[in-house]
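As a warm-up, study this chain.
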Amino acid sequence: MLMARRFGHTWWGRAWIEALEHRASLDPNRLPRGRSYARQGQVLSLEAEPGLIRAAVQGRRARPYRVEVRFRTFGDDEWERVLDVIVAEAARAAALLDGELPTDLVNGAAGAGVELLPHAGELQPRCSCPDWADPCKHSAAVCYLVADELDADPFVLLRLRGRDREEVLAAVRRRRAGAPGAAGEPPAADPPATAIDEADRGIRASRAWSRPTAALPEVPHPRPAPGRVAVWPSDPPAEAPFDAAGLCTLVADAAERAWAAIADGASLGLGLSDGEDLTRWAASMPDRASLAGLAERAGTTLTALERRARAWQVAGPAGLTVLDEKPWRAVPLHQAGSRLGTRRRAC
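Now compare it with the structure written out below.
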């Protein structure tokens, strides 16, 4: 049984999901539909900026719904405390650059009175749909995909809190160089590299390598069934050896074989000969009339193709090998008896 794709593979991504689901605890019925929308690609666009997430979600109506999720940003004093925590350990900035959100950074910020991760009350979703639920399925879909963004880059969380990656890193460099600057001022030019190098002597390699790493994401699961082939918009050129319907059939077959290879480990059958591939097609025909049409197009008889199709259904390519072997003729019974009598007299 195929498992549906999960959201929130990192511990901070899961914390975001927990805040969303806690907000919906009084009316959680929209969450499963929101997950389905997120998995099916109904979220057409997604943008994160300080204090705000904007998205367009395709619902049942022709026009996509507009979704906004507002988020509390930090004031200058709160950012000063966050930066103090980041600079206190060189490994913390290195972890952020490596795509991780260290637990000691989050705990240190909390100890300084600043909560980096959101709680349910901080998520304020709004949607242009008529549903009164909070969150509705459209805003839930957006929030589930934000967890993916956070998994990939923890700086997205800092951006939602009010400062983007470049601002945070520039402030960290200034502090390490001994020039913190006034709160709220725009980032100044980076200090010379020599000053940074002298102020930041790094950490011991053993400590850096002993830092716990985030769990690897799960292998994505294929869809529960192969996709549908779009209707071909026009007929192929007259000189083409196939028509539009035949081409769509070939594309559908290729999609189904690729899906089976991913889902069940089935062979793609790329090494089959033309005759074997024809037989594979014949074995999948739904009725005898379809098989007769295939035999006519292939220039063979219905009886011969039907015989080979049955062999394929029993044993695949091995069945054709047996079918093509030279027939073995048994010795007639009266000859076998006479030979046996001759041997007895000789004895």
